[in-house]
Write a structure and sequence with these properties.
One of its GO terms (biological process) is tryptophanyl-tRNA aminoacylation. It is an enzyme of class 6 (ligase). By secondary structure, this protein is α/β, with parallel strands linked by helices. It contains 22 helices and nine strands. The strands form two sheets. The protein has a seven-stranded mixed beta sheet, sandwiched between helices. It has a two-stranded antiparallel sheet with strand order 1-2. A hairpin with a 2-residue loop joins strand 1 and strand 2. The termini are far apart. The relative contact order is 0.13. It binds tryptophan (TRP). Tryptophan binds next to strand 5 and strand 8. Tryptophan (TRP) binds next to strand 5 and strand 8.
Length: 475
Amino acid sequence: MTEPEPSTVAALAADAPSTKQSVDPYNVSGEIGADGIAKAIDYSKLVEEFGTKKILDEDLKRFEEVTGHKPHRFMRRGIVFSHRDLNLILDRHERGEPFFLYTGRGPSSDSMHIGHTIPFDFTKYLQDVFDVPLIIMMTDDEKYIFGGPERTIEAVQSYTRTNVKDIISAGFDPKKTFIFSDFDFMGGAFYRNVARMSKHITLNVARAVFGFNESSNIGKIHFGAIQGATSFASSFPHIFGDDESITTQIPCLIPCAIDQDPYFRMTRDVAARLHFAKPALIHSSFLDALQGPGTKMSASIESSAIFMKDSAKDIKSKINKYAFSGGQMTVEEHREKGGNADVDVSYLYLRFFMEDDEELARIKKEYETGKLLTGELKALCIQHLQEYVKAFQDRRERVTDETVQDFMAQKRLVFSGNPNAKVALNEGGETGLEGKMGEVKVEEKTKNQLKKEAKEKAIAEKKAAKEASKAKETE
Ligand code: TRP
């Protein structure tokens, strides 16, 4: 086995203050074992602790039925593993009712690594599948407020600009996407919702949810109101209109890494009190650092990650040099005993980035039976990562300042939701999003709608009859 440098392992596990696993927006670390080495994150435990729902096979089945799309490989492989109210979003999609996608990024450095692209790749897939508006929040204020004394506003704003280009390179559709920076967008309807959120979050709650204390600056304590307020459609009148009786009832689906859940757990509580639609969530797990399960990619440790700016040569040498291997010491031993794919970084990365399920299963089997050697597995991983990073770099090259402007402009978005839905979306009426849900033309009504209409008709008839007989009485 290629043992990682102990110093690197210690550095990557350094944000672990305790020996227990800890996952929150500011710190992600696996349990530190007796040997001082971090263990892999136990995601089932998080589902239990956070009170989320595990994504089950039946959920994948329903997803495919409702959307007509094969679930993303992240979903098929349990990389996207947990949710809150995903079923309600699927129900809405089925009925053709509006919702939007919301995700974000804290711009804390210029170098995005492959771990950062996971939630965005997944979000891009969801945008294609649902054809709904997507809002991407750049929390430059968060990264300033939570950063060290040396971090300046100028720096985080410049990270926003470069990070937005990287995010756009995931392939989002500019007609359906709005990207904003907190520093630039704060005000108007968005700020009104921030104020509503903050009025319903006590210091006690912020402390309990995020672990703040007397020495935490007050910006940190307030920030949850900002990240939360983006979950509300009423924060974006240029997309959803300004009738709050309609917009406050349009929910969002938030694809995010599981560490962001505390923000939205709190937001869901506040939403209930504001009588706003609660955000739904779909959670992803983390991509381990090159040093193996239990370590975390760090934007400031070159050898911990593959960066999106790495050349094909960089990728090759990093995987060969640093990728933790589950193989045996000698070829003979490996042929005899086989390797351990579950801890092998090259295999873990293929699990994230290789599309073909059968090919992946074959690789795992051959590795575990010793047919496939570590060097061969690494070569497969290198080839896949090189292709993935190259495709990203090609798209990144085409992103100009004008592209950025277009994505960040407060413009109307064009989207159609579910083309097979049976409810009218664009003729005003039901949703009130006149013309804004795109070109959906509707021939059929759902059973529920017909039922509702029949009921309304019956009530109206009853009322008319009553009034008629009343009129008769007074005659
Ligand atoms: N706080 C997140 C970060 O530090 C950024 C963020 C804001 C976000 N809103 C989000 C991430 C919604 C996921 C979903 O990166």
